[in-house]
Amino acid sequence: MELRQNLAPGFLLGHRARNIVYTRDKDQIEKGSALEESEKREKGDQLWFRLALFLAPRLVTLYFRLVDLTSKKVWLNQEIEEQICKKRPFNCACFHGTMLFPVWHCRRYPGVVMVSRSWDGELIDRCLKRMGYDSTRGSSSRGGKEALVEMIEMIKERNYCSGLAVDAPRGPSRKVKMGIVVVGKETSQPVVPLVSWATRQIQFRSWDSMILPLPFSAIVLAFGKPTEVPPGLSSDAYEALRQEIEDNMLLASKQAEERVASLKHGR
User: Fold this and answer.
1) At 267, is the pLDDT very low, low, confident or very high (cuts 50, 70, 90)?
2) What is the model's pLDDT at position 12?
């Protein structure tokens, strides 16, 4: 699918989301949509996938409820949640590898998240909706710009919070992309980093080194310094804000990991 927008390199930074104009090649769209539908039908016809769609959301929510009930929560910079998150909508910025427990925690804030259009994204989407989230479907490799615009409109219309894995879907790990800056600018909501680490966890050998906290852990959740993204700045200024968000997230991650290390050593 050919998609040309006034989004890059500024990526919406000089334009209002509602004024974005898309130019598409009709034949390529039809072919892409047909392929997408064919993939969905192929998966949907398989018994194991239908079972997974039914069971995964229930098992995932049950698992995180167990982790939540059996684990001690240790908060860092919790005044940020008290002063901002509980008083106004915000954009939650997470690293893909440490987002699982923050997603569970933030279910208390009405919001929208972006999920890829892949078949595993369908499983994730079902899990998130069972936790109470709304979603838009897309990623940087397929439908991401449209999904971002839809997310921004939902935030404005419903006074939602939002959540983005800022280094997804393909990394590099812990490298913040410009999407969260766009959302912050277009919604006038602060960008609030949230990361987690645990004394008992599984760390997968994936591109993001994703962690899965285990029951009976001490889970450290660290908020990072919020960033406001005003309109009307230059591209260089928005890049500086992107770097600021990344630095704040890396600092919060360092604090969380250091606190877990001290807990393991009984300090």
Assistant:
1) low
2) 45
